[in-house]
Every structure is written in structure tokens, then in C-alpha cells.
Amino acid sequence: MPIVPIEKLTDLSRQALEAAGAASEAARSTARFLVAAEAAGLSSHGVSRIPRYCAQLRNQRTVGDAQPRVIREKGGACLVDAGSGLAFPACELAVAEVLNRARKYGVAFAGVTNSNHFGVAAMHLHPIAEAGMVGLAFGNSPAAMPPWGGKTPIFGTNPIAAMFPRRNADPLAIDVSLSEVARGKIMIAAKEGKPIPLGWALDQEGNPTTDAAAALAGSMLPAGGLKGAMLALMVELMACALTGAAFGFEADSFFVDEGNRARIGQAFLAVDPDALAGREIYLERVETLIATMLREPGVRLPGERRYRLARQAEKNGITVPDSLYQQLTELAKS
User: Fold this and answer.
1) What is the pLDDT of residues 96-127, one digit of tens each?
2) What is the pLDDT of residue 327?
3) How far apart (Å, rounded) are the C-alpha atoms in residues 85 and 158?
4) pTM confidence score
5) In the CATH hierarchy, which top-level class contains the domain 3-179+222-277+317-333?
6) How many angstroms separate the CA atoms of 2 and 68, rounded?
7) What's the CA gap between 294 and 287, in Å, rounded?
């Protein structure tokens, strides 16, 4: 498998997206985020997504030349319309807006509507943490989980992320999706003909199953049972009811090339510590909590592994499977 420098992999990814019809800035933004996810060891949300993004661009599921713009605003809140384009430039605009507004108002919220798959939720929050603010992100996705007590998928796996800046250290990066397990693990089990553990999914009839193929035809189970289902509901409302975006059950799967335009939603929140107890008190409290956590051997801070892998990738490059690298090369030339 080739080991590819980050800059080269980013450029190759950008070329592939542009060849499929993405505008230059949208392709550049998307490539940067997906390669960053790959570098951080999050391959399920990395460059393996590019071939499907390209197919969806060609099929007009995704609008290649969409220009994200602020369409509504009031004080510390605003709404960004992604125009059914790639999500990343729209999310960058939303994050820039919450930063500017939080500096003025102390807290700010930006919603994104008519959007698409937005990758690793926490990665959008780096500019907020770098500015010394606390950031939160929410996003919905095509239906994969039923409401509690049901069997029909209505909610997406709906990630929630938060980033807390620290004093002279990497921010705490908390990033969770709300299904018991990533759908990709079930897809791999189905491909290999292996069973899955009970508690991961239901079949089409709403029965617990260990059959991966039946699980793919059925629905995912929420992490934490009822609590996870309620959190998934909360995300649908935060990311869609407030923004006018499509709910998970209204969007076709991201894992197919053809289908409707997803039109899903995202939301970002920034909080300036200076508007509350103050930056120094905030930092002291964070470090006190972390020091207490780390007294116990084996405790790992959230985001720690991602930062370590990203630094290694920056130095040594990223290992890419032969078939994927060949596919990206062909897409870039098409």
C-alpha cells in the first residue's frame, strides 16, 4: 500500500472532486477535511468517501457549483444555506459566523440547511477552539434508527461533538454518533458473511438480529437504549426543525450513488468563556478536572489518539489501500 504525503493526497482528492463537477473552493475544502480525517485514523470518514461523493456529484445528488450563503440572521444567530452542495464550505462559513458573533455577543449559534454529509463533526470545531472558545456541533443523517419502541428507521445516527480549549495543550475533542455501533461495521460483517453481536441492530420486522444482512435491511439500535434515542431526537430537532432542513427519514442513504438531494442539517454553537466566569477561571477549572481524571492509570483524554495519529501522518504520510489510491488517481484524470 502506498504511503502518500498529506499535501499530495489532498491535491489528488481535490482533483478527483473537481473532475466530478465540484467548484474549486468546494473541492479544496472537502479534500482538506477528508484527508484530515484520514490522517487522524478515521478512515470511515476519510478519502474512502471521495468516490461516492464524485458519483453523487455526477448524478446531481450534490450540486457542484453551489455557493453557501447566509440567508437569515438576528443578533447572535444565523442560518446558512448550503444549496445542496458539498457540506464543508457551508460548515466553514457557519463556523466563521459563530466565531464573529460570539466575539460580539458572548455566544452564537449557526444552522446549516440544504446540506450534505459533513464528515467528522468535531473537525469543524478546531477554529472555535483555536480562538479560545468552547464549540459544539450537531448534525443529522439519513434514517438508520427507529424511535424508542419502534422498528422503522426515522432518525439518523446523528453525531454530537464538542471541543474545549485547554491551556498549552490540545483541546478536548468529544465526538460521538448515537447508534450503538457504526453502520460501516455491519456492512463489513455482511460482506464477510460474519454475524454481529445482539444489541447492534434490528431486522425489518423489528426483531433483534445477529444477521448482518438482515440488520442492513432493518435498523440500527441507539447507543444507551432510550437515552440514545432521545439524544437522536434532540439532534433532529436542533439540526432540522430550527434550520428547515430535511429530517433523516426524508433523505436517501449516503451509501448509494443515486437518490434525492439529502438537504439535511447541521448546527454549530460557540461560547466565549470571557462572557461567563472568565477565560482564566475556565482554563483553571478544565485543567483541575483533567488532572483529577488522569490520576487513575489507563484514563485517556478524548481526542488524544486523533492528535497523535495526525502528527504522525503529517511527518510520515498516510497509508492508502492500493485499490483506493488507484481509484482516486483514475477519478482525478477522468
Assistant:
1) 999 999 999 999 999 999 999 999 999 999 99
2) 97
3) 19
4) 0.94
5) alpha beta
6) 35
7) 10
318-319 vs 3-4, strand pairing mode: antiparallel
d(C-alpha 265, C-alpha 282), whole Å? 30
Q: Could you tell me the sign of the dihedral formed by the alpha carbons of 88, 90, 95, 96, in that order?
A: positive
Spell out the domain ranges in the chain.
Answer: 3-179+222-277+317-333
Name the one residue in this structure whose C-alpha cell is 477561571: 281
**Residue 151, φ and ψ in degrees, nearest 5:** -130, -10
Q: How far apart are CA 127 and CA 124, in angstroms?
A: 7
Interatomic CA distance for residues 194 and 281, integer angstroms: 51
219 HSE (CA, 13 A, CB side): 27
Each as own residue / partner, the long-range contacts of residues 94-99 (CB below 8 Å, 24 or more positions apart, any chain) are 94/266, 94/268, 95/124, 95/125, 95/127, 95/128, 95/135, 95/268, 95/270, 96/127, 97/70, 98/128, 98/135, 98/268, 98/269, 98/270, 99/127, 99/128, 99/131, 99/133, 99/270
Q: What is the rounded CA–CA span in Å between residue 36 and residue 45?
A: 10
